[in-house]
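Form 12-C: Joint structure prediction
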Amino acid sequence: MGKKGLSTDIKNFLDKYFAFEKVESPKTGYLALEGKISVLDKNDKLWGHFKILILINEAEYPYTVPMVIEKTQIINRDWDFHISKKGECCLDIPHKLMKRKGRGIIFEEFYREVIYPFFANYHYKESTGDYANGEYKHHFDGIAQFYQEEFGLSDFKNIVSLLETAINGIKYHPNKECPLCGGPKYKKCCRKKIYDLKGYGLQQLKFDLALFRKYSPNTEQVSN
Amino acid sequence: MNLFEDYKNVIKKAVENDPTKSNKIYGLSESLLESNREYLKSLRNELPGRELSHEMKLFAKGMGVPETFDYQPLGSHPDFVHLKGTDLVEEHWIISGFIDVKRSTKLFNNFTKATVRLITESIIRASIFAVNLCGGYVHRIQGDGLMVYFGGKKKEKLKAVEDALKSFSMISYFVKNDLKEFFEDNGIQDIHTRAGLDLGHSKQVDWFYSGIGESGEVTTCSLHTSLAPKMQSNAKNSGIVVGHNVTTQLRKDKYFEQRSKEIHDYEDGRKYYQYNFDWERYLVDNNLAVQNDMGVLVLTINTFPDPNRNSRDLYPIASKSKPYFNYG
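Section 2 - Result
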């Protein structure tokens, strides 16, 4: 789709969200939007405002994840608030973002479903002490937490096997015993997990595999 | 903060207590109508009068208007009241505006005329408040509409243009955002405002007294006063149409979309054009409204967090996010 689809989507966004405008991009190849997010709750009560910069890769759109930088410095540059020293916001676990990227995003939907809730959640944490839906731990611990919550997996050896199967495209007989977890039928247990894992993209799976191997060094590589 | 909350609540109560719907089969008895009239009479007292509500005071303060502002008397513009009963004529610029509620006659199909009267009065009172808040003068009430002037001898022209646009934007917001959906839920489809605004420069406007004795009014004779209601009738649903003279004052193209057909042909090769005004963008840019996650406008002038906010109401939006840290 590229630039044409992006310009249509951005026009639609700017025609609806008036506090944003296109600005000169600080990064070559990226379209830049700057504006103000005003966080309102379901009763239209105001919680606060943030000035933000959004960078969108023009060549990759819609198969991309926009970068969001908080410019007002309201959010403490502390990793407990999931923000870098430069103000780059960690909007979600990369797996979920990669899944959106793989499907292709519509920018307005991404703003509504990912960007806006991130800033609403900051206020929620400020008010209650916790994020509304919890948070992922930092770095590898967060990835391990994701596998636990999303797939119920806590055995790193099993995770490595699943990742290798997904990455290498290994096929198993659907009605025979699952070679990955020992369940009665492969199609009834790990096959669905393999399908879901593939949705996160090869790059993310390889990254995860390296990490899980690192933290579980005795795992043997599954051969094709 | 909901600036028009009190007006909206009165309309809601009037509609919810209207006896028409619950008595469609057996018809309305005189005693039922009488009891409803008594109810509406007391409900009318809940409409904000000269004393502003807390939200209205906050809004006025945010706009730099005294909390105790006085409503200007209807009729003669105070700067030209001395023309009353005279043959004098004065040239002075003015912005003329017309706004009314379309499809409001549909209200009579669903409610008693007493309910319709209170609905109409609530909208008119809210509109009069918005006009006065922005320094305008209501010249005439026409059923469910207003004829309004903005500007005067001690006013700056650009400021008056901005005030007129703000005022009409607020009224449009009230009907579109606070009332339209409620009416639709109650069987009244597509209630909306339409508005027209134009500026006549001093050489284009005569102020004079029109009429005989007490049967007259101080008014304007200007092409641009005459064009404003034509623009109003050309406006889209919830739209505001303005004349070229308004756009040249503001000099911000992003708010104005020229309509293909001119509003006036001078028949000497010149044409006078009309423009759709993007009032929602204007309210946001002027810090009179913010937008929620869905892009819906919420009128507010307060830049500080609402003291009555509750995290329970933020949860549905916040819980869509589960952050992760992976930098440095």
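Section 3 - Comments
The first helix of chain A runs from residue 2 to 16. Chain A is about 45% helix and 15% strand.
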